[in-house]
């Protein structure tokens, strides 16, 4: 084998080694100067338990909600936090072992199940009762009634004269995660509304002496009717959930004091249709920490920090990042979907090796 062929083989091997280790090197250098930590269990249920550890103080009750009932979970957040009640999530017919262990080990007196047997099955109810815990179901006719119920329970405890209003829909839930921490911290109820049940929010406001309404959402999520029927409306809007999220942080937090954010994925739509509930659960999980520390949540839907989010962090010199449910990392120079990036880089590597080999053999 002549020198040119040996050189070509060595060069090809060097490319392979560089390819295998480039991701680790890039990730090692990524966000140098920032403090990164993560809260991530083996699944969404372990994550929600891990986030609450040390933040619930000898709880005696819990609320159990179907993982897919995103709106109800959002409604329950401020009430649950104000009353030291962990918010637990489950599948319809199978109680996760992590949730079962939490109920059993904490010797809870009562678990409130939100919804009928078509939402959370009877066998789950029996499983909980076998731990010695009483079970009470909370059943309402529709989403508007659930929203109003938790709002009433919240203000009864916190005496809040303010309320958050979020659009009741997939896009609204993704945006609503922005206010979870502040709603819990201040005891402000969250009402999820649409055009058909807006009157329930107006009714709640009248009956409970609400003086201020924060409408959170994209520019066109809720019509101008909201401004007419709800008291003293202040809209916090944006073109998308990311801009709304940043505007919420600026509106409700003292940016001179914010040096840390919790980073969570804001419930991406899968194939443009179904909400990724696992990502939303991570936002719910972070609530006890955000509420106690007074630190905001930053929505970021990729494993690396997106450009607008990075600009926001730099603007306010925020150097501490705690990701919930995933690890912040970057393994390629170009920001592509991880699968696409892997395909592209593999293709380029193969082409380069093929060219080097072809030229070496030709000579």
Q: Note the run of SSEs as H and E.
A: HEHEHEHEHEHEHHEHEHEHEEEHHEHEH
Give the integer mean of the pLDDT values. 85
Shape: globular
Q: Low-confidence spans: pLDDT under 50, at least 5 residues?
A: none
Record the strand order, biggest sheet: 1-14-10-13
Compute the separation of the termini in Å.
Answer: 11 Å
Q: How many H/I helical runs? A: 15
What share of the residues does DSSP label as strand, in percent? Answer: 15-25%
Gyration radius from CA atoms, angstroms: 24 Å
| Sheet with the most strands, sense and barrel status | 4 strands, parallel
Portion in helices: 40-55%
The total of beta strands comes to 14
Sum this structure up briefly:
With 363 residues, the chain is an alpha/beta fold. It has helices at 3-29, 44-52, 70-82, 97-105, 122-129, 143-158, 170-176, 180-186, 198-207, 225-229, 241-252, 277-285, 287-293, 307-315, 338-362, and strands at 35-39, 61-66, 87-90, 110-114, 134-138, 162-167, 190-193, 212-216, 233-236, 260-264, 269-270, 274-275, 297-299, 320-324.
